[in-house]
């Protein structure tokens, strides 16, 4: 449905998007994730044809967004981070206006608008001025506008930014419903939001692709996937040396030393337990373990680790 090939966007000497390539299949919900300034909005603006690329191509259902713009854009519904709403219009008037812009047949407009308002739970607000709506309902109006014409692809840029927890849950549920009839790309810098609704996660940082995988498999791309915290009695250097010799261990760091005890964080690459390997190694070296606590890595930990590693490599 969507194919992005070697996409590049430069502003003078600054490269906002750097050789980005990925595909999105029909019916998928794909999250474009990255820290602020990673290039998410720039990428979305190029996918929608709002801005041109320096290099590379974007195809929407086989149509090049730059060379066949009119055909390609007929397949896209777009909600930018700031919805382009007319505050002095009523909800129904705005959607009628969008339908006219999208060249929806007059005979189909009323039925389509009623159905979309029903799907986005805006029916009770149809005669309200947009200026009087809450932030959450304004987002719904923006999404409803993107749905006019029933495009195959819905692109949402930070769809829950500025919403309260209840509104965020409502928008997430709406996005899940959209996937039944549309392909959805949404951008966010909030990992929990993306993992809650997306089939795949594409992480970018400084314009580069870091990971393209399911939320469940993100940990496999991190430098570590398991870890423990230890309090060990002994010499710091000897403890670090012994732990570094354990094949399943990829990182050893000392948190502090206190009264002959060393507080250590040990990370392993694989999901398998590293506790047995560490226990037997330190027992062999006659370094008693006083406490051992298993670490639980959240998706946020994994995301930070992935982006940190990318920055280290860039340096």
Mean pLDDT: 89
Strand order of the largest sheet: 6-7-8-3-9-10
Radius of gyration: 25 Å
The total count of strands amounts to 14
Overview of the molecule:
The chain is α/β, with parallel strands linked by helices and 315 residues long. Helix content is 34%, strand content 30%. Strand 4 and strand 5 form a beta hairpin. The radius of gyration is 25 Å and the shape is elongated.
Descriptive labels:
about 325 residues, about 30% strand, alpha/beta, 4-stranded antiparallel β-sheet, elongated
Provide a quick synopsis of the model.
34% of the residues lie in helices and 30% in strands. The chain contains ten helices and 14 strands. The longest helix has 16 residues.
Give a topology summary.
Layout: E1 2-11, E2 14-24, E3 29-33, H1 40-47, E4 55-60, E5 63-64, H2 69-73, E6 76-79, H3 91-101, H4 106-119, H5 135-147, E7 153-157, H6 165-178, E8 183-188, H7 191-197, E9 200-205, E10 208-213, E11 226-233, H8 236-244, E12 249-258, E13 261-268, H9 275-284, E14 289-295, H10 299-314
Parallel strand pairs: 3-8, 3-9, 6-7, 7-8
Antiparallel strand pairs: 1-2, 1-4, 4-5, 9-10, 11-13, 11-14, 12-13
